[in-house]
Amino acid sequence: MAKTRLKVSGLPQVKKLEDFDLSWPKGGLTERKFKELSSLSFLSRKENVILMGPSGLGKTHLLLALAYKACMTGYTAYYLSCLDLTERLLKAREINKLKRKLQWFRKPHLLVIDEVGYENLNQEQATLFFQLINTRYEHVSIIITTNKSFSKWGEMMSDDAVATATLDRLLHHSHVISLKGDSFRMKDRLKVGVVDFQ
After folding, report:
1. CA separation for the pair 84, 86 (Å, rounded)
2. Which structural domain, as residue segments, surrounds residue 175?
3. Which of 8, 124, 156, 188 is buried deepest, with most CB atoms within 10 A?
4. Do the strands 77-81 and 141-146 form a parallel or antiparallel pair, or are they unpaired?
5. What does DSSP assign to residue 149?
6. Mean pLDDT, range 130-138, rounded to an integer
7. Which helix (H) or strand (E) holds 189?
8. Are strands 141-146 and 174-178 parallel, antiparallel or unpaired?
9. Of 53, 42, 160, 161, whose CA–CA distance to 109 is shortest?
10. Count of domains for the chain
11. Residue 102 has pLDDT above 90, yes or no
């Protein structure tokens, strides 16, 4: 049942692809690419989607909308923030249930991880994040949002080697969408001249 899949997905709110303003980002997502992602064909190919760029360009909207459509069309999806993910993995390791938790995270057809890079990970968190990515590698899909370019992941993960290994698996079969433009949340303020970036 779609309603059951949606309920267990952990999605904080419903967002739909038809409500995404494709005209707002000033680069990084063509109409053709948007349609390809919207078809969810990446799920059957077990590919990942990485949505990059500064805040306010619709990365989380797109992530939630793709997860919502997945739930509505027969796939299982699960949402959580990067911080929440690493906290759960840390707790599982503390009680000697890390392997079981990683296997649990491998089950959904689609795992959506929001806000990767909004807070730096310590070495312990980074290693656990890598283990999760490695567990799902070539088995099931992941969508992540990040405000960090790949060149900053070594700093963000406190370890260049772990960052390289993580990116190696994430990027092997992936769609990288690097959004550019002004914050959508500033749109109305910009219109009336409340914010001046001059």
Report:
1. 6
2. 48-53+63-181
3. 156
4. unpaired
5. -
6. 98
7. helix 187-192
8. unpaired
9. 42
10. 1
11. yes
Q: Within a domain: residue 96?
A: yes
Helix, strand, or coil here: 70?
Answer: helix
User: Where residue 122 sits, what CATH number does that domain have?
Assistant: 3.40.50.300
- pLDDT at residue 195 greater than cutoff 50: no
Beta bridge pairs of residue 81 = 114
Answer whether residue 103 is part of any domain.
yes
Q: Tokens 């312990």 — which residue?
A: 124
Task: Name the E strands within the chain.
Answer: 48-52, 77-81, 110-116, 141-146, 174-178
* Cβ atoms 161, 68 nearer than 8 A: no
Burial 64-81 (b: 16+ CB within 10 A, else e): bbbbbbbbeeebbbbbbb
Q: Show the CA angle centred on residue 65, arms to residues 61 and 68, nearest 5°.
A: 140
